[in-house]
Design brief:
Number of domains: 1
Radius of gyration: 17 Å
Order of helices and strands: EHEEHHEEEEHHHEE
Distance between the termini: 46 Å
Helix content: 40-55%
Strand content: 5-15%
Largest sheet: 4 strands, mixed
Shape: globular
Protein backbone atom coordinates (compact mmCIF):
# COMPACT_ATOMS: atom_id res chain seq x y z
CA UNK A 1 0.00 0.00 0.00
CA UNK A 2 1.53 3.29 -1.10
CA UNK A 3 0.60 6.20 1.17
CA UNK A 4 2.22 9.55 1.99
CA UNK A 5 4.74 9.55 4.82
CA UNK A 6 2.88 10.07 8.12
CA UNK A 7 3.10 13.40 9.87
CA UNK A 8 3.40 13.30 13.65
CA UNK A 9 0.78 15.24 15.58
CA UNK A 10 2.72 18.17 17.02
CA UNK A 11 0.30 18.94 19.84
CA UNK A 12 -0.37 16.04 22.25
CA UNK A 13 -3.62 17.75 23.22
CA UNK A 14 -4.96 16.96 19.75
CA UNK A 15 -4.38 13.26 20.42
CA UNK A 16 -5.98 13.59 23.86
CA UNK A 17 -9.00 15.28 22.26
CA UNK A 18 -9.32 12.47 19.70
CA UNK A 19 -9.13 9.86 22.46
CA UNK A 20 -11.81 11.69 24.47
CA UNK A 21 -14.22 11.89 21.53
CA UNK A 22 -13.64 8.26 20.59
CA UNK A 23 -14.18 7.04 24.17
CA UNK A 24 -17.79 8.18 23.92
CA UNK A 25 -18.47 5.35 21.46
CA UNK A 26 -18.34 2.78 24.26
CA UNK A 27 -16.09 1.02 26.80
CA UNK A 28 -14.00 -0.79 24.18
CA UNK A 29 -13.14 2.57 22.63
CA UNK A 30 -11.58 3.93 25.82
CA UNK A 31 -7.82 4.31 25.88
CA UNK A 32 -6.83 6.10 29.06
CA UNK A 33 -3.82 8.31 29.62
CA UNK A 34 -2.06 6.65 32.54
CA UNK A 35 1.19 8.63 32.70
CA UNK A 36 4.77 7.43 32.64
CA UNK A 37 4.55 5.87 36.13
CA UNK A 38 1.58 3.47 35.91
CA UNK A 39 0.01 2.42 39.20
CA UNK A 40 0.20 -1.10 40.53
CA UNK A 41 -1.62 -3.56 38.27
CA UNK A 42 -0.66 -1.90 34.99
CA UNK A 43 1.83 -3.67 32.74
CA UNK A 44 3.42 -2.89 29.42
CA UNK A 45 2.28 -5.43 26.86
CA UNK A 46 5.85 -6.70 26.50
CA UNK A 47 5.83 -7.54 30.22
CA UNK A 48 2.85 -9.88 29.94
CA UNK A 49 3.58 -13.52 30.66
CA UNK A 50 1.75 -16.70 29.84
CA UNK A 51 0.89 -16.98 33.52
CA UNK A 52 -0.83 -13.58 33.56
CA UNK A 53 -2.92 -14.31 30.49
CA UNK A 54 -3.57 -17.84 31.74
CA UNK A 55 -5.37 -16.31 34.71
CA UNK A 56 -7.46 -14.21 32.35
CA UNK A 57 -8.24 -17.26 30.20
CA UNK A 58 -9.13 -19.32 33.28
CA UNK A 59 -11.53 -16.61 34.43
CA UNK A 60 -13.13 -16.53 30.98
CA UNK A 61 -13.46 -20.32 30.91
CA UNK A 62 -15.05 -20.36 34.35
CA UNK A 63 -17.50 -17.58 33.48
CA UNK A 64 -18.63 -19.19 30.21
CA UNK A 65 -18.34 -22.84 31.22
CA UNK A 66 -15.60 -23.57 28.69
CA UNK A 67 -13.76 -26.88 29.01
CA UNK A 68 -11.18 -26.37 26.23
CA UNK A 69 -8.23 -24.06 26.98
CA UNK A 70 -7.77 -23.09 23.33
CA UNK A 71 -11.36 -21.83 23.13
CA UNK A 72 -10.89 -19.62 26.18
CA UNK A 73 -7.56 -18.37 24.82
CA UNK A 74 -9.16 -17.46 21.49
CA UNK A 75 -11.96 -15.53 23.17
CA UNK A 76 -9.45 -13.64 25.31
CA UNK A 77 -7.41 -12.80 22.21
CA UNK A 78 -10.50 -11.66 20.29
CA UNK A 79 -11.55 -9.40 23.16
CA UNK A 80 -8.11 -7.83 23.46
CA UNK A 81 -7.96 -7.34 19.69
CA UNK A 82 -11.26 -5.46 19.85
CA UNK A 83 -9.93 -3.25 22.66
CA UNK A 84 -6.91 -2.41 20.48
CA UNK A 85 -8.69 -1.76 17.20
CA UNK A 86 -11.55 0.24 18.72
CA UNK A 87 -9.70 3.35 19.97
CA UNK A 88 -7.23 3.33 17.10
CA UNK A 89 -9.81 3.14 14.32
CA UNK A 90 -12.20 5.40 16.21
CA UNK A 91 -9.58 8.14 16.47
CA UNK A 92 -8.62 7.66 12.83
CA UNK A 93 -12.14 7.72 11.44
CA UNK A 94 -13.59 10.38 13.74
CA UNK A 95 -10.66 12.76 14.08
CA UNK A 96 -8.02 11.83 11.51
CA UNK A 97 -5.52 10.87 14.22
CA UNK A 98 -3.88 7.47 14.75
CA UNK A 99 -2.55 7.13 18.31
CA UNK A 100 0.93 5.75 18.90
CA UNK A 101 0.68 2.53 20.94
CA UNK A 102 4.37 2.07 21.69
CA UNK A 103 3.79 3.06 25.33
CA UNK A 104 0.66 0.92 25.69
CA UNK A 105 -0.06 -0.47 29.15
CA UNK A 106 -2.71 -2.96 30.17
CA UNK A 107 -4.62 -3.79 33.32
CA UNK A 108 -5.98 -7.31 33.05
CA UNK A 109 -8.92 -6.61 35.34
CA UNK A 110 -11.43 -8.09 35.05
CA UNK A 111 -12.42 -6.32 32.92
CA UNK A 112 -9.27 -5.51 30.98
CA UNK A 113 -8.38 -1.85 30.39
CA UNK A 114 -5.82 -0.28 28.08
CA UNK A 115 -3.93 2.96 28.56
CA UNK A 116 -0.99 4.99 27.30
CA UNK A 117 2.00 6.05 29.34
CA UNK A 118 2.75 8.83 26.82
CA UNK A 119 0.45 10.52 24.32
CA UNK A 120 1.56 10.78 20.70
CA UNK A 121 0.20 9.98 17.28
CA UNK A 122 0.10 10.71 13.58
CA UNK A 123 -2.19 12.76 11.39
CA UNK A 124 -4.01 10.54 8.89
CA UNK A 125 -6.74 11.68 6.54
CA UNK A 126 -7.22 9.16 3.72
CA UNK A 127 -8.53 5.62 4.33
CA UNK A 128 -5.26 4.26 2.95
CA UNK A 129 -3.14 6.27 5.35
CA UNK A 130 -5.34 5.46 8.35
CA UNK A 131 -5.26 1.78 7.37
CA UNK A 132 -1.47 1.61 6.97
CA UNK A 133 -0.77 3.35 10.27
CA UNK A 134 -3.47 1.47 12.18
CA UNK A 135 -2.32 -1.90 10.88
CA UNK A 136 1.24 -1.15 11.99
CA UNK A 137 0.44 0.00 15.52
CA UNK A 138 -2.19 -2.67 16.24
CA UNK A 139 -0.31 -5.60 14.68
CA UNK A 140 2.77 -4.92 16.79
CA UNK A 141 0.72 -5.14 19.98
CA UNK A 142 -1.25 -8.18 18.85
CA UNK A 143 1.98 -10.02 18.12
CA UNK A 144 3.15 -9.43 21.68
CA UNK A 145 -0.21 -10.52 23.05
CA UNK A 146 -0.22 -13.70 20.96
CA UNK A 147 3.22 -14.59 22.29
CA UNK A 148 1.86 -14.36 25.85
CA UNK A 149 -1.22 -16.55 25.29
CA UNK A 150 -1.19 -19.66 27.49
CA UNK A 151 -2.18 -21.87 24.55
CA UNK A 152 -0.69 -21.78 21.06
CA UNK A 153 -3.30 -20.89 18.45
CA UNK A 154 -2.94 -21.11 14.70
CA UNK A 155 -1.77 -18.05 12.80
CA UNK A 156 -4.91 -18.15 10.68
CA UNK A 157 -7.18 -18.08 13.70
CA UNK A 158 -5.25 -15.19 15.27
CA UNK A 159 -5.29 -13.16 12.06
CA UNK A 160 -8.98 -13.91 11.65
CA UNK A 161 -9.66 -12.70 15.18
CA UNK A 162 -7.86 -9.46 14.36
CA UNK A 163 -9.90 -8.98 11.18
CA UNK A 164 -13.14 -9.78 12.97
CA UNK A 165 -12.35 -7.27 15.71
CA UNK A 166 -11.46 -4.65 13.10
CA UNK A 167 -14.70 -5.09 11.17
CA UNK A 168 -16.72 -5.24 14.38
CA UNK A 169 -15.18 -1.98 15.55
CA UNK A 170 -16.09 -0.19 12.34
CA UNK A 171 -19.56 -1.71 12.47
CA UNK A 172 -20.16 -0.17 15.91
CA UNK A 173 -19.16 3.25 14.60
CA UNK A 174 -21.43 2.89 11.56
CA UNK A 175 -24.41 1.89 13.70
CA UNK A 176 -23.89 5.03 15.77
CA UNK A 177 -23.51 7.33 12.76
CA UNK A 178 -24.71 6.28 9.31
CA UNK A 179 -22.66 9.08 7.75
CA UNK A 180 -19.60 6.94 8.50
CA UNK A 181 -20.84 3.97 6.44
CA UNK A 182 -18.88 4.63 3.26
CA UNK A 183 -15.68 5.90 4.93
CA UNK A 184 -15.76 2.87 7.24
CA UNK A 185 -16.21 0.49 4.31
CA UNK A 186 -13.32 2.11 2.47
CA UNK A 187 -11.15 1.86 5.58
CA UNK A 188 -12.07 -1.80 6.13
CA UNK A 189 -11.30 -2.62 2.50
CA UNK A 190 -7.93 -0.87 2.77
CA UNK A 191 -7.09 -2.74 5.96
CA UNK A 192 -7.96 -6.07 4.35
CA UNK A 193 -5.31 -5.31 1.74
CA UNK A 194 -2.57 -4.88 4.36
CA UNK A 195 -0.13 -7.71 4.97
CA UNK A 196 -1.43 -8.46 8.44
CA UNK A 197 -5.05 -8.90 7.35
CA UNK A 198 -4.80 -9.87 3.68
CA UNK A 199 -6.81 -13.00 2.98
CA UNK A 200 -8.57 -13.06 6.35
CA UNK A 201 -12.08 -12.41 5.06
CA UNK A 202 -14.46 -10.91 2.56
CA UNK A 203 -16.12 -7.51 2.83
CA UNK A 204 -19.23 -6.64 0.84
CA UNK A 205 -18.10 -3.90 -1.53
CA UNK A 206 -19.37 -0.39 -0.92
CA UNK A 207 -21.89 1.14 -1.37
CA UNK A 208 -23.66 -2.05 -0.21
CA UNK A 209 -23.19 -1.22 3.47
CA UNK A 210 -25.95 -2.57 5.74
CA UNK A 211 -27.56 -0.11 8.14
CA UNK A 212 -26.43 -2.22 11.09
CA UNK A 213 -22.72 -2.26 10.27
CA UNK A 214 -20.38 -3.85 7.73
CA UNK A 215 -21.02 -7.09 5.86
CA UNK A 216 -17.87 -9.05 6.67
CA UNK A 217 -17.24 -12.80 6.67
CA UNK A 218 -13.99 -14.18 7.99
CA UNK A 219 -12.19 -17.21 6.56
CA UNK A 220 -11.38 -18.79 9.92
CA UNK A 221 -13.36 -19.67 13.02
CA UNK A 222 -12.75 -18.18 16.48
CA UNK A 223 -14.13 -21.38 18.11
CA UNK A 224 -16.89 -19.49 19.95
CA UNK A 225 -19.41 -22.12 18.85
CA UNK A 226 -17.70 -24.49 21.30
CA UNK A 227 -18.87 -22.38 24.25
CA UNK A 228 -21.77 -24.26 25.89
CA UNK A 229 -25.07 -22.93 24.53
CA UNK A 230 -23.42 -20.64 21.97
CA UNK A 231 -24.07 -20.55 18.25
CA UNK A 232 -22.06 -19.15 15.38
CA UNK A 233 -20.78 -15.59 15.28
CA UNK A 234 -22.32 -13.30 12.69
CA UNK A 235 -19.14 -13.26 10.59
CA UNK A 236 -18.26 -16.96 10.96
CA UNK A 237 -16.94 -18.88 7.99
CA UNK A 238 -19.04 -21.90 8.96
CA UNK A 239 -22.55 -22.47 7.62
CA UNK A 240 -23.50 -24.45 10.71
CA UNK A 241 -21.81 -25.43 13.95
CA UNK A 242 -20.01 -28.80 13.73
CA UNK A 243 -21.35 -31.56 15.91
CA UNK A 244 -19.66 -31.90 19.27
CA UNK A 245 -16.87 -34.47 19.44
CA UNK A 246 -17.92 -35.42 22.92
Amino acid sequence: MTVPDPEPVRDPQAVRAALAVTAQAGPFFRLGVIGDSPARGWLRVGELTRASLATMADDTARELGIAEPRVAASIVHLGLAARLWSPVLGCGLLRGVVPDLRTLVISLGPPAHLGLAEVAGWAAQSPGQIAALSADVVSAQLTALADALPVALSAGLLRGNSASAMAGTLGVLVRQDQALALPAAELAAALLRTGALRGTGILTPSPAVPADGLAFRRRSCCLYYRVPGAGLCGDCCLARAPRSRQ
